[in-house]
TrEMBL record:
Full protein name: DUF2071 domain-containing protein
Family matches, as InterPro entries: ADC_dom_sf, DUF2071
Pfam families reported in the protein's UniProt record: DUF2071
């Protein structure tokens, strides 16, 4: 994936990927027309991904220190768009800065939510806290221990993390944007503690069982603008 004319540069840092299996039908009924749930071995997957967004800037513009770095947490699933391309659908994206939340909702039509958040890294242990300002009972508190590197991702790990396209709906039309970045430097992870209901707040059934856990130091990202997509485009 190459983004020749990026409209934004970002760095995603100190990520944790938590993934649960879901029945494909349960996820499909939450998707807008035009998107089909992408499955692996017959199951859909839903991810809870807390991390630090850093270095946000437009081309030829320096990053502003306060506005360009903040925690973020997204709830997402994996889809096939009307153009036949694999990508991501976001149920929610929590962010700790109000201005980027407003801009992202207006320009990218993504379901951003302003939240009180923090990310703390203590050696191999990463702590994530999230409380939504308007609905503080909706939360995500997670503690993860980062483990050894994964030299060769499995097909499932590729399916869950090698995603370079996101879909949204703007003015009733399906649109897509691309995110160019190198391969994730993936590591094993161990979930030490989790208290969350962001998945349920997005309309999903409560997850069952322990999630798959992966971690990454992060990647540099080039993001394209939106373009309308349709069958065969």
């Amino acid at each position: 994936m190459v983004v020749e004319r990026p409209v934004m540069f970002q760095t995603w840092r100190d990520l944790t990927f938590l993934h649960w299996r879901y029945p494909a039908t349960a996820v499909q009924e939450l998707l807008p027309p035009g998107l089909t749930v992408d499955t692996h071995d017959g199951d859909a997957w839903v991810g809870l991904v807390p991390f630090v967004m850093a270095g946000i800037r437009a081309p030829y513009v320096p990053a502003l220190p306060w506005l360009s770095r903040f925690p973020e947490t997204n709830v997402r699933t994996y889809v096939i768009g009307p153009d036949g391309r694999a990508g991501i659908w976001f149920f929610s994206l929590d962010a700790a800065r109000l201005a980027p939340v407003v801009v992202a909702r207006l320009t990218y039509s993504l379901p951003y939510v302003w939240s009180d958040m923090s990310v703390r890294v203590d050696g191999p242990t990463q702590h994530y806290l999230c409380r939504r300002h308007r609905t503080p009972d909706q939360r995500c508190d997670a503690t993860v221990r980062v483990g050894p590197p994964i030299p060769e991702p499995s097909p499932l790990e590729e399916f869950l993390t090698a995603r370079h396209r996101l879909y949204s709906v703007r003015s009733g039309r399906m649109v897509a944007a691309d995110a160019e970045h190198g391969p994730w430097p993936l590591r094993r992870g161990e979930l030490l503690d989790l208290d969350q209901n962001l998945l349920e707040a997005g309309g999903l059934p409560a997850p069952v069982g322990d999630p798959l856990v992966h971690a990454s130091a992060g990647v540099l990202v080039r993001v394209s603008g939106w373009r309308e997509v349709s069958s065969g485009s």
